[in-house]
Specification:
Blueprint: H1 2-46, E1 55-59, E2 65-72, E3 75-82, E4 90-93, H2 100-109, E5 116-125, E6 128-136, E7 142-148, E8 154-158
Antiparallel strand pairs: 1-2, 2-3, 3-4, 5-6, 6-7, 7-8
Organism: Terrilactibacillus tamarindi
Domain Cell wall elongation regulator TseB-like: 37-82
Transmembrane segments: 6-24
Length: 161
């Protein structure tokens, strides 16, 4: 009887580990495929070389975007590549917008109830480039504040999710 329990538990553990690995692998493969597609769209639209791309991030908003940091005409730029046809391609020189640290400074000056900043990432709302700041408040609710990339103006906040 003891052997049967060990065998059954072992089989269950193997199945759970296998399913976890398969799910992880599918997710990573999908993410890499979507990233590659975004880079190809950027190469075609902006006439850039993928060898100059230094970073690719993803923003899942009303209109999802991949944000690509690259060099173009000798300058560091961010390129917003829409996932769907309804979004616009957006380009901004890195030096023409606020930095991540400046966005955080502006955010802290807004005096939101902040326990912990979870992430700061680029995105776009209605074709306006933004810094999206995700944070936890003292009740451990998720919150989002969006500041424009160009000047740091708050254009959206979603609180107590």
């Amino acid at each position: 009887m003891k052997k049967w329990i060990i065998i059954i538990v072992s089989i269950i553990v193997i199945v759970v580990i296998s399913q976890s690995w398969i799910t992880y692998h599918k997710t990573v493969t999908y993410k890499n495929k979507e990233e590659k597609t975004a880079v190809q769209k950027a190469e075609k639209h902006y006439k850039i070389s993928s060898s100059q791309i230094s970073d690719v991030t993803y923003y899942n908003g009303k209109t999802p975007y991949h944000i690509i940091k690259t060099k173009r005409k000798g300058q560091d730029v961010y390129l917003w590549v829409p996932d769907a046809k309804k979004g616009s391609y957006i380009e901004r020189k890195v030096k023409d917008g606020i930095t991540e640290s400046k966005a955080l400074s502006i955010f802290y000056a807004l005096k939101y109830d902040t326990l912990k900043v979870v992430s700061v990432k680029l995105g776009a709302i209605d074709d306006v480039p933004i810094w999206e700041i995700t944070f936890l408040d003292h009740h451990k609710h998720y919150n989002y504040v969006s500041l424009t990339f160009d000047d740091g103006e708050e254009i959206q906040h979603i609180l107590h999710i």
